[in-house]
């Protein structure tokens, strides 16, 4: 699916979504409108028990860009939880917040980072989420196979479920690549493989020496320690080359989604289904993609599709077959953490019930504050700018995007024909 197809579909499918807006008659709507000149920051403020804190005003909040306080020009609370579904209670924030009938979810399956078992678990949870937790006015899209399914952002649950069913496991995935580390001669971690590929001869020699001491028969069969060293180098080089390819594809997919969602106003939620991916030298690139997503109003959440990892060790080793991969030196979780922290979302790990994981994300997107400001530095110079949101309220935690890429937004067009 090409970039143009995805971009055009976001506009073409607008017509199918017009007229589906549901505004409670008694609910006043804020008059704030989106402006590409404003930077908008969605902030979730929680008390010590993890409950949303209502009632904040602009004067309760300080927003800093690159350490400098900015003048807040928009500040209001949004809720999607008005209780207009059958049997649903009215939100406790309904009289304080701007009601939005719509949310937008893009579920991005990172196939190259998913084992077959993880993918099946995630697809089941995603289908339950669409069937049971997405409201009728919510729109969504399924990104898999390096493209948006049928190039559609839609409220049609049948289409969304078809998109989930269409996601297929990658022929070469990260777990298959890592499985070679368990074979003689063993490599203990991605970190070791990267160091070897970068020319760390001492690591190669130490691993070969350990392998020949532990398995002398296999060592002799390979032709001695020198040949074992050659095999370790070949294995490490192959892994790093393949892992880089998978990581580039993941980053390209995230970049494509962020760019295209940037033309739609308001908050957009991307749910990244992954087991983590090799990041290492891609950190600067990933940081820029994260900044672009933040500028586009995209909040990224990540679900570790492995679910609950069993075992006594808190740092399971890639050499233990039942654990699947290393976490001691594995950079995979670093990547997901950069994406989620940078855009104001969070990571979910250690949960087998994928429907519950999706539900945590749906709940988190239901109520939040919107802070809008025109940066003192009005130049859209393409640089990454740090953001910090603080509140004078004691004992509360603020979660918001931490940086954005200073770029101009494209002309805004809402899927529903109206928006901030």
Give a concise summary:
The protein is α/β, with parallel strands linked by helices.
Protein model, in words:
The chain is an alpha/beta fold and 420 residues long. It has two domains: 325 residues, von Willebrand factor, type A domain (Rossmann fold), CATH 3.40.50; 71 residues, no CATH class. 35% of the residues lie in helices and 19% in strands. It has twelve helices and 15 strands. The longest helix has 37 residues. The chain starts with a helix and ends in a 15-residue tail after the last strand.
The CATH fourth-level homologous superfamily of the largest domain: von Willebrand factor, type A domain
Per CATH, the architecture of the largest domain is 3-Layer(aba) Sandwich
Low-confidence stretches: 1-5, 7-34, 83-90, 311-330
pLDDT averaged residue by residue: 83
**Helix content range of the residues, please?**
25-40%
In the residues, how many domains can be counted? 2
CATH class of the largest domain: Alpha Beta
Shape: globular
Keywords:
alpha/beta, 35% helix, 15 strands, 12 helices, Rossmann fold, 420 residues, disordered N terminus, five-stranded mixed sheet
Topology:
Layout: H1 3-12, H2 14-17, E1 39-47, E2 61-65, E3 68-69, E4 72-79, E5 98-99, E6 104-109, H3 116-132, E7 139-144, E8 147-148, H4 157-166, H5 174-179, H6 190-197, H7 201-214, H8 216-222, H9 225-261, E9 268-274, H10 283-295, E10 298-304, H11 332-343, E11 347-348, H12 354-364, E12 367-373, E13 384-391, E14 396-400, E15 403-405
Helix pairs in contact: 3-4, 3-12, 6-9, 7-8, 7-9, 9-10, 10-11
